[in-house]
Amino acid sequence: MQTSALSEEPGLEPVQTAGETPRRVGAFKGFAEQEWAPALLFFICDVICWVTIYGVLSYLRHDALFSSGFEFAVIDLIQLAVIVQALFIIGGYSSRVEMRGLTYTAEHIIAMLTALAISALILYAAATFDHAMKPSRSAVLASFVLFTPISMLYRRAMGWKVAKLSANRAFLVIGAGEIAAKFFREYRLSPNNQRLEFVDLNQTRVGQGISGPGTPLVGGDLASKLGEAAKRYSGIILAESMDQISPELIDCLVRAQFQRTRVYTLESFYEAHWRHVPMDSIDPFWPLQSGFQLSRTSPYHYLKRLFDVIASIMGLAVLWPFLLIIAALIWLTNGRPVIFKQPRVGRDAAVFTLYKFRTMNSGNADEEVDIYTRENDPRISGLGRWLRKFRLDELPQLWNVLRGEISLIGPRAEWVECADRYNKKIPFYHFRHLVKPGITGWAQVNYPYGESDEDAVEKLKYDLYYIRHYSLMLDAMIVLKTVHTMLFGKGR
Question: Which of 7, 97, 116, 293 is the most buried (most CB within 10 A)?
Answer without folding.
Answer: 116
